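Hi everyone, sorry if this is the wrong subforum. Our group has a chain we'd like a structural model of before ordering constructs, and none of us has done structure prediction before. Sequence below.
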Amino acid sequence: MLGAVAFGAQRPRGAAPDCPYAWVEMPVLNDESMFEVWTSAQPVVREETAELVAARNEDNLFGCLQMKLDCGLESASYLAYSRIFDYIDRRGYGHLLRVWNYFPRINADADGLERYVRFNVGRYDAFAAKGRVIGTAAPAACALGSSGTDLIVYFLAAKQAGQRVENPRQTSAFHYPAQYGPRSPTFARAMLMQTAGKPLLFVSGTASIVGHETLHLGNAPAQVRETVANLLAVIAQAQLAGLESPRANANLRLKVYLRRPDDLAMVRNCLKQTFGPASNALYLQADICRANLLLEVEAVYLHASASMH
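Answer:
Right subforum, don't worry. Here is the predicted structure as C-alpha cells:
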C-alpha cells in the first residue's frame, strides 16, 4: 500500500493501516465512512519524517501531512508546500502530479480576505520560492472545506513529469484575473501520467465555471449539468493527448463534494445518466472553494493495470 485516506464525520474505529494515512473529517453521504486506498504492484518503501509521512515505489511517491493553523492559513499553506517540495526534490520524485487540500471554514473571512484566497497566497508563494514555474509545474488539485481543525494535504509525485491538460471551456486557474485574489490558484485542470506503461488521468475538482465565472447561481441541477459538461470537455482534451477510453466507465472513479446534502439524489442521478452505473462515486458533504458553488466533482480515469480503490 502506498497510502490510505479515510473520510467520515467520525474517525474510523480500529487501528490505522500500516502505510501513510490521513483522516479527513468530512461526512460521507452514501455511507458511514470510506477509505481511499492507493496500492502498488512494485515493492514499497515507507518513511516517516518530522515533516510528513510517505511511501514510494520505483516510479511514484505518495505522501501526506497535517498542519496546525495556529500560524494562520496563509503561513500553514506556504509551509506545507515548502515541506512537500523539499521532500520530493531530495528523493528524486520532483514532479508533483496530484494534490488534495482540506481545511476548515474555507469561505470564511480572514483579515479581509477569504480563507481560500489566503490558502492560495501561501501555495503560490511556495511554488515560486521552490523554483516551480507557475502554470507549467501546476499539478491537478482540489481544495475543500472540511469539518476538522487542521490543514490536511496528501499528494502523488513522480520521477517523470506528467502532461498538463487544460479545459477549452475554462480559463486556466493560474491565469484568473485579480478579482479572485492577489495570487492565482496554482493548479491544472487535469494531469495525464503513465503508470505501468498505461495512461492515467487525474481531473481536478471541477465545478459550474465557464471562463472564470460561476454560472447558475443557486441552481443545483443547472450547476451539475455545467459541471458534467466541463468534465467531459477536459476528458476529451486528455483523449486527444493519448488517454484511452475506459470500457463502459468501469475504471472511472468520481469524488463528489456537495454543499447541500439534500442535492444528493439529484446529483447522483445526473452523474449515473452521464457516466453509467459502472462508474464508482464517493459523495461527501463539504464547503466548496467558492461560496456561490453548490458542488464540485473530481475524477480519476484508471487503466485496468492501475490501482486506486
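For your construct planning: The radius of gyration is 18 Å. The first helix runs from residue 73 to 91.
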